[in-house]
Amino acid sequence: MTPARDPAPNQQMAPGRVLLEASNLTRILPAIVPVTLVQDVSFQVGEAEFVAITGPSGSGKSSLLYLLGLLDRPTSGEVRIDGLPTHALTSAEMAHLRLEKLGFVFQFHFLLPEFTALENVMIPMQRLGKRSPKAQVDHATELLAALGLADFLHRRPEQLSGGQRQRVAVARALANSPALILADEPTGSLDSVSTEQVFESLQDIVTSERTTVVAVTHDLELADRMDRRIHLVDGRVDYDRLRQE
Amino acid sequence: MLLLRIASTHIRNRLRQTIVSTLGVALGVGFSVAMASLMEGSQRDFTATLIDAIPHVEILDEQRAPAEQPASAVYDAVTYHGLRPKEDLRGIRNPTEALASLRDWVNGSMAQRLSGQAVLRYAGQDIGMTLVGVEPKRELNVSKIGEDMRQGAFEDLDTTSNGLVIGDKAAERLGAELGDTVTLTSANSVAKRFKIVGLFHSGITTSDEGLAYAPLKAVQILLEKPDIINSIAIHLNAIGEANEVAARAERQLGYKAVSWEEANEGLMEAFFVRNVIMYTVVGAILVVAGFGIFNIVSTIVHEKARDIAILKSLGFPEGDIQQIFVLEGLVIGILGALAGSALGFSLSSYLASVKFEFTQDVEMTHLPIYFSTLHYVIACLLALFSSGIAGYIPARKAARLNPVDIIRGAT
């Protein structure tokens, strides 16, 4: 049975094609005293939107992002990606959907330490197998160059600065040209210069590639520069509003 | 290919542990190959000696089951008291006819024999002997006695009607030499003089001390069994047909026919048990080696939990994650199996080259090693199976790791 979809408080309707849809999402951790991480969250995100998810610590921002990224399953409710309901998908089908349609950027770069920047970016392409080996190298080189890392292709993560690593992670998230990028505090561990570089990279992806970016952040200044802000309190949507010019 | 690359980077990063685990597998494979080569070599050597020494099929002058009593054929239940077999002259009747009927279909050589017990006397000393009456030329086709001759020639029995060939140890005990005349006395106290025309050394002490060959006619006279033989020895061209030939000959002639396998059933069973023990030990060695692999793959899974989360978040399914870690186990297993095969070959070659020098006349002067690809295949397959299982257990755990738990832990 498809769960009912009630609009969230102050919900903004996504313009144009709906790419991501959360309907009455609830996630409760089973324990002696069950912990509610996300409660009855509903919203829609459209193509080429740059959305911030904000909220105080423990408000369920990251938990919501994991549900949206199909890394976790909701206790109830549903996530639709590009119109596809995901509640009945097997873990292998979810993995394939992640590979093809989603890109992740985490607070810490989470690059594979034994591989160079170029190889890290190529890994999702190699797994998907839609590009020839030469095309994979070309595309990965292009992505890294576009993020200002043309001179660091063959460096391992340990030989890169924090900002550079995070930009490699952004390039890796873009490797399979996903429709949606989910970022969990992508600038959380960076200095102000690197923060600005990574933020601009994400913003550029939205404008030039028409890729949707949903980013969890505690940096309200950055959140205010994004198209839309969904604020959570205690796992519920407190407000969902467009950027005020 | 990508998964193999990820797997190989993991094990390369744990080089020391990888080398130790690989060595564990290599030692297991190497020693098992060397042990199998030695065991099969000794088994083949022993079997070859045994088969050479005895006929492949021997037809004896006895029945496999006692003849059915007439009353049993009439009544369902019969009890006999004080039953005694009737006195009968033992032996295979009409041996010429029996041999002719066998020659029609048996693919091999045949020789008739008459064996019996006799006492050999020389210079006042007596030795109990098993005396075998043979047709020398035919006997040479069914046994390796010709190769065992140390002095004289076995064929001389053909030209010397009272010729005798005895073991060198018997001659030594008696102090008799080639050309000496000895006396043989049968159980019926018939005595006859024989001339020693040859000495043999088979390496089997009981034969060298207590077996003598003489012309068939002379033995028939001594044992008072004219025109009678008590066994037909068959040497087959294809040794594997022994059981089949024995069964058919028994059906055809009505006499008990024993194949070399039946005659040495206990020994064959002992070899089988020995092989089971050997492969159990080999399996145990490789299980121990498997624990080494399990240890290293488990450590890598623990260390690489974050990488597992990354790969899962990128869209690698559980099957891929499992494959990566199973591959790690298998890569170690393959490396170990290759190194172990080389080690096994070196060990076997070394053992084969070791020579023993004895002051006494001993047949074996080196270890009997048998080189067989099958030993390598079995040991390598066992190693791969063991390493596959050792990799699979932690791999299953890795595949089930929840990426959210790991990402939360890292942040």
TrEMBL record, chain B:
GO biological process, one term: lipoprotein localization to outer membrane
Record InterPro entries: ABC3_permease_C (IPR003838), Lipoprotein-release_system (IPR051447), MacB_PCD (IPR025857)
Domain of life: Bacteria
Segments forming domain ABC3 transporter permease C-terminal: 281-403
Membrane topology of the entry: Multi-pass membrane protein
Subcellular location: Cell membrane
Residues that span the membrane, as ranges: 20-39, 276-303, 324-347, 367-393
Alphabetical UniProt keywords: Cell membrane, Membrane, Transmembrane, Transmembrane helix
Chief place where the protein resides: membrane
Annotated Gene Ontology cellular component terms: plasma membrane protein complex
Residue ranges annotated for the MacB-like periplasmic core domain, each copy included: 18-250
Alphabetized PANTHER family for the sequence: LIPOPROTEIN-RELEASING SYSTEM TRANSMEMBRANE PROTEIN LOLE
Family classification: Belongs to the ABC-4 integral membrane protein family. LolC/E subfamily.
UniProt name for this protein: Lipoprotein-releasing system permease protein
Source organism per UniProt: Roseibium aggregatum (strain ATCC 25650 / DSM 13394 / JCM 20685 / NBRC 16684 / NCIMB 2208 / IAM 12614 / B1)
